[in-house]
Amino acid sequence: MNEMRGEEIRAVVAETLAEQQRLHHDDIDVVILKTIATILTSFGIEEEDRKELRADFQHLRRWRKSVEQAQSFTFKAVITIIVTGFIGAVWLGAKVMLGK
User: Fold this and answer.
1) Which of left, alpha, beta for 3 (phi over 0: left; psi -120 to 50: alpha)?
2) Which of 27, 24, 6 is nearest to 16 (CA)?
3) Are 53 and 45 in contact (CB under 8 A)?
């Protein structure tokens, strides 16, 4: 009989283990997808609503970014007003001091 060498045995075992791991990952992927679908369904989000949900999230992102931008502009405006008021007070004080 033709005997298998150690290298051939290792190759067969490695291939078998790799196939089992691929099957195991496929099973895990199926379970994860079912779990996510179940969770979303429990929140009232059906699979058909996926496009609408995506649009809602995109709208929320745009809204958040616009609010952050408005906050930045507001902060800059407040700093500008404070600095302008301080410079105006210094100018008025210097004008009064030079006027005496």
Assistant:
1) beta
2) 24
3) yes
